[in-house]
Amino acid sequence: MIVSRPKLSFWEKSYLPQIFSGLWLTLKHIPQKKVTLQYPEQRPKLLGKYRGAPTLVKNPFNEVKCVSCQLCEFICPPKAIRITPGHRNPASTDANVEKEPQEFVIDMLRCIYCGLCEEVCPEEAIILQKHYALTAYQRSDLSLPKQKLLEMGGIHNDTIRKWKTK
Question: Is 7 helix (H, G, I), strand (E, B) or coil?
């Protein structure tokens, strides 16, 4: 089977139509308003359902919500979460909860920000915050311990008072 080539005119052989169409496309984009943000003070608007860094939160009584069930550790695909269970203070108001994390570490270098840890947590103790600028000078600084995660998460105001005895 022989396929014949179409005959091109002189204008088409010169590639000028393609050059002019490319220039026209570039010129159409020039008059658009440019947006410059002063980054640390002004942050860009996050579109859609952005999933940021996982953090631990406290309840309104300033107590750790995590009960060391370790579901987040088991569900994490890259195994970025490590939990060492400990015991709660018997004098606290939520002493009927048997465990509290003695050590809770999330390695942000391994985290893939999938959100499975937030979905599986029965106490809503892990929340994906809108942090997207986690930086450090050393790799070991991005392995965040419990205190740093609680600082980033803050206090989560919810109405669930599941473990309150008083």
Answer: coil
Domains of the chain: 54-153 (3.30.70.3270)
Query: What radius of gyration do the chain's Cα atoms show?
Result: 27
Q: How far apart are CA 31 and CA 4, in angstroms?
A: 44
pLDDT band at 128 (very low <50, low <70, confident <90, very high): very high
Q: Which residues of 44-63 are buried (b: 16+ CB within 10 A; e: fewer)?
A: eeeeeeebbbbbbbbbeeeb
Q: Does 14 score more than 90 pLDDT?
A: no
Q: Write out the two tokens for 79.
A: 């195994």
Residue 164 pLDDT class (50, 70, 90 cuts): low
d(CA 54, CA 120): 13
Residues ≥6 apart with Cβ < 8 Å to 144: 105, 106, 107, 108, 152
Look up residue 146 and give its DSSP letter. Answer: H
Q: pLDDT tens digit string along 62-74? A: 888 898 999 999 9
With the CA atoms of 126, 131, 133 and 135 taken in that order, what torsion angle do they form, in degrees rounded to the nearest 10? -30
